[in-house]
Design a protein that fits this description.
single chain; FAD/NAD(P)-binding domain; 2 domains; 7-stranded mixed sheet; 7-stranded antiparallel sheet; 16 helices; about 30% helix; FAD; GMC family oxidoreductase; flavin adenine dinucleotide binding; GMC_OxRdtase_N; flavoprotein
Amino acid sequence: MAFVRVPRDGVPVTQAKDVALDASLGKQFTLKTDVVVVGSGAAGATVAYEMAKAGRDVLVLESGRYYPSSQFTEHLGDTMTKIYQDQVGQVNTTADIIFVQGACVGGSTVIGACVMEEPGDKVLDGWAEKYGLENLSAKNFRPYLDTVADQLQIHTNEAHEINACAHKVIQGCEKMQFSWKPAQRNVKQCALTGHCLAGCPSDRKMSSLVTHLPWAAAYGARIFSDTEVVRVRMLDGRARGVEARITDPDSGAEVATMNVDADMVVLAAGAIHTPLILQRSQVKDRSGQLGRNLAIQPFTQVLGKFKEPLYGFRGALVGVQVDEFTHTDGYTIFSGLAEPESLLAQGDMKAGKAHMEFMKDYKYYAGVNAFSRDLGQGYVQWDGDPYTGDKTIHWNPSREEFENMKASAALAARIFFSGGAEKVFLPTFQSLEANSVFELDAKMDEVDYGIKGLYTFRSNSFSPHGTCRMGADPYQSVVSPTGELHDTPGLFVADSSLIPESISAPIQWTVQALAKYVSDQINDNAANYFIG
């Protein structure tokens, strides 16, 4: 095809304000397409590109707003209120874990930390054997991972991308003889401003906003923002489109309702929202696993205070990772000092005079995110009417998961003390801090499991997965090895919901490879899915 120039503001997107001004559409309208893709993040954008490139008419529906990179200010507070899901208020039932998710065109790829890691051959071969997913074996899935690596320009951090904060982690690891390595990131010639979570104004982060979405648009894909899919439309047991509502992102007023007629529906709204759409749609599920098996990769931010100024907020946000315990215990520690707004969102900024003192000392801090692997025992649930009900995210740590979180945080603290920290702040509701490594064990003993681990750690999750498990057995999984629901023809899932069990690696690389794989399954069997 001919070269297509994409405008500086990204991609052509039909927004709620455009629908409101288009008299030909009215308050209720219907669009027709070959493929409707729900969600525009890592998975949705990849599917949209692959389908459009194959010559299909593609419609992408995104519930969040369109926020082009030219509008990013690198002020995280700005971004949080505009393009984070629930304004960083998406939490579990006890509100002690924040599920950080993008709510915008480009999804979580726009506000992510850029950390990339493969799931590993042992993990992939385990999926193939345990869940009948032979196409996801290391040998068969490797080409998909390699393609995504090329598309996202994934590279290993070079020396100039490892800042002072990361060097404190390196120093601690060297003293303790822990294995560490430079992190891998999907960034092209990083500007080293350190504001990844606020969006990248220079388009150097290879998010979907600047990769697969404009590529899909160049092949004719249409993109709607501010458009929440309420449920999948069925005809004779087959998915035939979706029902959605378009809402003004500032006022919250409903602008119009949209019906989409399509040969195929691909859900790519993420591990929280994809199962909720399926629950609202009342799809058949012999397995009883829909919305179950939620794994979240919980992590805590551990802060170390050093004698010399580090300005840990300068340079690449994530420089190195500690992989000493990744394969044995599921603990992975990434360098990265959270911005004040992030700490404020999770209640780590103190108040009054103590807050002022904290901010005065901020330049002396280094930070790490201490991840642990969970058991995948959470679930998401839609309660009430499809339009007026609400979601609940059920995840609280078992005793084993709690001990994993505790051990990961304790390791992070030891690394900081070995790197020369004079004080370490632990990520607990008790605001615990240790002034030396000799106090650490006693302080960690104060972190008690309590009532089912509630209100102990201030935790976050960037990577929920597993709620629409993929597998060959329809009595043990929601989605077949092709990505199509076992019990609903024409309805596919292509996001992190598919991951069949808890993994320790950051998931974006895996998710985009899975989305490419599902797209190939559809294109390779197009005669079975499309009319004409």
